[in-house]
Inverse folding.
């Protein structure tokens, strides 16, 4: 009986989210970009190579976080329900066929923020806690926010 309680306790602890895993992910653009909001479907089109432009027709430069960053895997899981390995396989197939090119990869969250600050076409995802300071100085703006309400909705 005691063994069953320990197993149940361990399972319960695994179900408690950690602070890093729960950090809200936001999608940002340069403050001078005319886009003010994007839907989840529009993000899917941009990040999965189906669309090269923002809805208003302006060119878009999707930016990815580095492979293995943790944030990248969480973003694609929330966006399309795929793991980072699944996304890598998706892009390998598209690259082989010559259909599309994957988003540009930046090595750090800071370099991701920097390219969005400097390029009106850039679009990126970051943890809301990392973007907070930059948002307050009006160099970037949030156009989509993943939270419990819209990770499964807004399709």
């Amino acid at each position: 009986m005691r063994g069953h309680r320990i197993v149940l306790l361990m399972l319960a602890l695994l179900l408690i989210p950690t602070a890093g895993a729960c950090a809200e992910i936001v999608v940002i653009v340069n403050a001078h970009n005319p886009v003010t909001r994007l839907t989840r479907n529009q993000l899917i089109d941009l990040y999965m190579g189906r669309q090269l432009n923002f809805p208003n027709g302006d060119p878009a430069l999707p930016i990815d976080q580095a492979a293995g960053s943790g944030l990248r895997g969480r973003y694609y899981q929330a966006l399309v329900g795929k793991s980072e390995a699944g996304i890598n396989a998706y892009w390998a197939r598209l690259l082989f066929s010559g259909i599309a090119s994957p988003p540009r990869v930046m090595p750090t969250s800071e370099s991701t923020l920097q390219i969005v600050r400097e390029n009106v076409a850039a679009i990126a995802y970051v943890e809301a806690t990392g973007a907070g300071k930059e948002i307050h100085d009006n160099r970037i703006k949030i156009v989509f926010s993943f939270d419990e309400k819209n990770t499964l909705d807004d399709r």
Q: What stands out?
A: The domain at 23-146 is CATH 3.40.190.10 (D-Maltodextrin-Binding Protein; domain 2). Residues 91 and 97 are 10 Å apart (CA to CA). The chain is about 45% helix and 15% strand. The chain has one domain: 23-146.
